[in-house]
């Protein structure tokens, strides 16, 4: 366990790698929840984006505790787990942020709007564990 | 949400697909935890294997609540999330079980024994959600 992301694993968080995060959250009754999703990392914060009212949104607003596993798309035995606490939740610029994430993963703007209110979450990597 | 695994997604649980599960657990203080790992599904139970004393082992013994996301290795936008409660924890046959899982993923027996005591966990898929 560490609180710094070793250089050896920074590629997993890079724009070019386009690796998905598997985001784990604990629901109100303690039930774990996990879904793959897009993320970005700006060197300080991990940035996530969801929509108001979703399970992820509610769980991050309630406890703020998050864990995510990022596996190398070319080698599933190589991964990093990052744990932390959400320090910023905002709807400001959140539509632009999902377009930004979409550029990373699809090369184009996000095409999934359906009247949803997008939300951006930022957390600082806290506990890091690596494998492979 | 459903409690049955739709035929459309059963391939993600198959022996041939060799998809990893991202297993999410809630730790004692509510912190989420997530790691990729091997699994098997016998049509009734999801079968996991870890070692005595590990974070995963402790969390599954404590609450028994698990969630796992399984993504299609060829299409990260296609995945299934399975939630449930561990109903069986046993050390009996657990070394054989990790060899069995290793056969699925590597084609050979497990080569990672280091004096560890292997443990097998079984849970029934309870809540299912699918995407893609």
Q: What is the helix tally of chain A? A: 2
Strand content of chain A: 35-45%
Structural class by sheet pairing and helices of chain A = alpha+beta
Report the major sheet of chain A: 7 strands, antiparallel
What is the average per-residue confidence, as pLDDT of chain A, rounded to a whole number?
95
State the shape of chain A. globular
CATH fold-level topology of chain A: Pnp Oxidase, Chain A
Instruction: Give the domain tally of chain A.
Output: 1
Can you count the beta strands of chain A? Answer: 7
Helical amount of chain A: 10-25%
Unreliably modeled segments of chain A: none
CATH structural class of chain A: Mainly Beta
Radius of gyration of chain A over all CA atoms, rounded: 14 Å
Strand ordering within the main sheet of chain A: 2-1-5-6-7-4-3
Which CATH architecture of chain A? Answer: Roll
What is the CATH superfamily of chain A?
Electron Transport, Fmn-binding Protein, Chain A
Oligomer kind: homodimer
How many angstroms separate the termini of chain A? 14 Å
Order of helices and strands of chain A: EEEEHEEHE
Name the pair of protein chains with the most residues at their interface, and give those residue counts: A-B, 26 and 26 residues
Written account of the structure:
The structure is a homodimer of 132-residue chains. Chain A contains two helices and seven strands. With 132 residues, chain A is an alpha+beta fold. Chain A has one domain (7-131): Roll (Pnp Oxidase, Chain A), CATH 2.30.110. In chain A, a hairpin with a 2-residue loop joins strand 5 and strand 6 (75-90). Chain A is globular and about 40 Å long. In chain A, 36% of the residues are buried. Chain A binds chain B through residues 20, 22-26, 30-36, 63, 65-69, 71, 73, 76, 79, 81, 83, 131, and chain B through 20, 22-26, 30-36, 63, 65-69, 71, 73, 76, 79, 81, 83, 131.
């Amino acid at each position: 366990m560490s609180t710094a992301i070793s250089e050896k694993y920074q590629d997993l968080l890079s724009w070019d790698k386009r690796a998905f995060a598997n985001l784990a959250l604990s629901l109100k009754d303690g039930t774990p929840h996990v879904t793959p999703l897009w993320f970005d990392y700006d060197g300080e914060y991990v940035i996530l984006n969801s929509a108001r009212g979703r399970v992820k949104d509610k769980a991050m607003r309630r406890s703020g505790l998050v864990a995510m596993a990022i596996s190398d798309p070319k080698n599933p035995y190589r991964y990093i787990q990052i744990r932390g606490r959400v320090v910023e939740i905002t709807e400001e610029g959140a539509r632009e942020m999902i377009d930004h994430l979409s550029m990373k993963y699809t090369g184009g703007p996000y095409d999934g709007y359906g009247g949803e209110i997008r939300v951006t979450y930022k957390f600082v990597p806290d506990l890091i564990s690596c494998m492979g």
